Predict the 3D structure of the following.
Amino acid sequence: MDNHEKTNSSQMVALAFLGGAVAGVVAGLLLAPKSGEETRRDLRGYARRVEEDVLEKAKEARAALDETIERGKHFVAEKAEDVASAVKAGRETMKEKMDKCCS
């Protein structure tokens, strides 16, 4: 295959690609079920609904997070009371043992 045939072949491929692209655009315009304005309006409406859904989910997630934080605070407070009681009992027991031992 000489250089002239390669150039011709490349040009044919490029021409076929451009022809296919133009045919696709024309087919898309002719077969589109809605006008451009209708499509843009539908897309804006869809974007608005998605935004509202995302904001609602974010509010729900925030409420769940707040509830989890509150439960965690209560859990820590209860455990702190348990530890304080255990330390107090340990001190009293130690004091009793010291009193028995050293008296």
About this structure: Residues 36-102 form the longest helix (67 residues).
